[in-house]
From TrEMBL:
PANTHER family found in the cross-reference section: GLYCINE--TRNA LIGASE, CHLOROPLASTIC_MITOCHONDRIAL 2, GLYCYL-TRNA SYNTHETASE
Pfam families, per database record: tRNA_synt_2f
Documented EC number(s): 6.1.1.14
Protein name: glycine--tRNA ligase
Keyword Aminoacyl-tRNA synthetase: yes
Molecular function GO terms recorded: ATP binding; glycine-tRNA ligase activity
InterPro entries: Gly-tRNA-synth_bsu, Gly-tRNA-synth_heterodimer
């Protein structure tokens, strides 16, 4: 099952260069993080105006893909004795990974033939992964000119005043330094729009799209 992800970084007024750098890096970092963490999605869009950077990920799966993991063991020469029976080292390797001899596979590597076993790592719920992934994404954004504020170690082009994140209609708590995410805030439109329900923010996407600064 897939849902839309929306992350808004609200700031004091961003210079044009910082806005451009922020948009480019936000898209690149998001794409990299989701691919590396086996989180499938349909599309990524980044919007922005001088008071906000907005990431919209359409069709983000609600769970990671399961991953096939190969565990490398001893070399074949150490694993088997001259009678082709498992050695003490072999039994220790199998016991430590709760594996049977039938699970063993021999593969040729640059250093010769080695023993491997395979395990399937079950994917975690996306909702569980997002707080840390989005935090690291925000912290990774760099600018030609950046600043610290309020005694924080966080550097950004301008002070961040709010973070707001929704995955479907679920609020994601993304904590960065002393910033506390919240749901109710103003959009900066001609008519202020207060978001008082989680689902209501999904309707805000189209409004944000009309505020894009190229």
């Amino acid at each position: 099952m897939s849902k839309d992800l929306l992350l808004e970084i609200g700031t004091e007024e961003l210079p044009h260069l910082a806005l451009q750098e922020g948009r480019e890096q936000l898209e690149a970092r998001a794409r990299e993080l989701f691919v590396d963490n086996k989180l499938n999605f349909q599309s990524i869009q980044v919007y922005g105006n001088p008071r906000r950077l907005v990431l919209v990920v359409r069709g983000l799966e609600d769970r990671q893909e399961d991953q096939l993991i190969k565990i490398k063991g001893p070399s074949k020469k150490i694993f088997y004795d001259q009678r082709n029976e498992p050695t003490r080292a072999a039994l220790g390797f199998l016991n430590s990974h709760k594996a049977s001899l039938q699970e063993v596979k021999i593969e040729l590597t640059e250093k010769g033939e080695y023993v491997f076993i395979e395990r399937t790592k079950e994917g975690q719920p996306t909702e569980k992964l997002l707080p840390q992934l989005l935090r690291s994404m925000i912290l990774s954004i760099s600018f030609t000119k950046s600043m610290r504020w309020g005694g924080s170690n966080l550097r950004f082009a301008r002070p961040i005043r709010w973070l707001l994140c929704l995955f479907g209609d679920c609020h994601i708590n993304v904590e960065v330094e002393k910033l506390v995410p919240f749901l109710v805030q103003k959009t900066g439109l001609a008519v202020d729009l207060a978001v008082v329900e989680r689902a209501a923010y999904l309707c805000k996407t189209d409004l944000i799209a009309n505020m894009v600064v190229e």
